[in-house]
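Posted in: Structural Biology > Protein-Ligand Complexes

Title: Requesting predicted complex, NAP in pocket

I'd be grateful if someone could produce the 3D structure tokens for the following input. Sequence and ligand are given below.
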Amino acid sequence: MSEATTTSRTADALVTRGASQPFERSTIERRAPRAHDVVIDIKFAGICHSDIHQGREEWGSALFPMVPGHEIAGIVSEVGSEVSKYSVGDRVGVGCFVDSCRECENCKAGEEQYCLQGEVPTYNGKQYDGEPTFGGYSTSIVVDENYVLGIPEGVELDVAAPLLCAGITLFSPLHHWEAGPGKKVAIVGMGGLGHMGVKIAAALGAEVTVLSQTTSKEEDGKKFGADHYYATKEEETFEKLAGHFDLIVNTVSADLPIDKYLGLLGLNGTLVHVGIPEGDSSYQAFSLAGMRRSMAGSKIGGIRETQEMLDFCAEHGLGAEIEVISVDDVDKAWDRVVDSDVRYRFVIDVSTFGSSAA
Ligand code: NAP
Ligand code: ZN
Ligand code: ZN
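-- Reply #1 --
Done. Output follows.
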């Protein structure tokens, strides 16, 4: 096992310096590994719509310079002196947070994503000691072993990267609200999150319907395991499916007419929001009361559940559908995500830092 070095190291990174600024190739410092730290050579980083919301300050003011990226897959290159969970050469991932208080009731319950002191986000945040965090659009990262996931054999690193956010963000609510045989589940929006929702809900045995703006991606949706596919631009979809679903998971990054979607739930049905558009949403209490419906939200998943999700994906042969891009194509890719022109996740090949800029 290679000895951990005691100095910080420089990593290549894509940096944006403001909400309307393009990316530039630059370098950042990664801390020297502490006793429980794992140093990861990043191989692939997924592009999540949350990167764009934050990088463009759609969720309020952000910290710049910013290196986004919380769908990270790579190989362990060094370990601190007391690391027991990982060894050099292991295939690993990092998701949306890199630390949490470890003491609050939610952390103790393995729900670190709801840490009462606030978990430490992988980027656009600060460590508890005040150091800014930088994400996965970079060649390496140093993370405490307790916040690192193992990527099982059988799932390639490029298709694994998006599981670290998109995968767990759908797996967690589908589990919590018991998607499975006999349950009618709708996934709204078939982008990065949505297409993983279709695959996971189908693998859990639910009857899966995609509600997409148009039927242009119907063939893909059915290939991913959807039983039905409807266009939400067609008014008749809402008449035909009124009162139909037990569970609807909304992955849309823009505001939707919520009452119309609540109307698709049957008795005791639940609409879960995982998409987080900027601004406020509104709905009528009647839309809930009439059929004892619930409306809820869900945020990524804890470390234990994220590992369960990765193992589940390996067992069922699931990975993300990806378009691999170079580090110089990220600005264009962000625009394409905003235009719903993504099939179904952009993944940055971090080795392209090694090639000269276009
Ligand atoms: P994405 O790849 O852009 O997918 C969003 C999909 O929503 C699009 O592909 C499109 O699907 C649909 N859509 C977009 N604009 C729409 C509009 N104006 N009206 C109706 N449908 C529209 O984004 P993503 O990475 O999956 O992320 C989706 C949302 O989830 C973002 O807001 C993101 O910040 C949030 N998120 C939340 C969590 C969490 O923990 N809760 C985690 C990750 C991401 P169709 O073309 O099929 O209609
Ligand atoms: Zn994300
Ligand atoms: Zn906590």
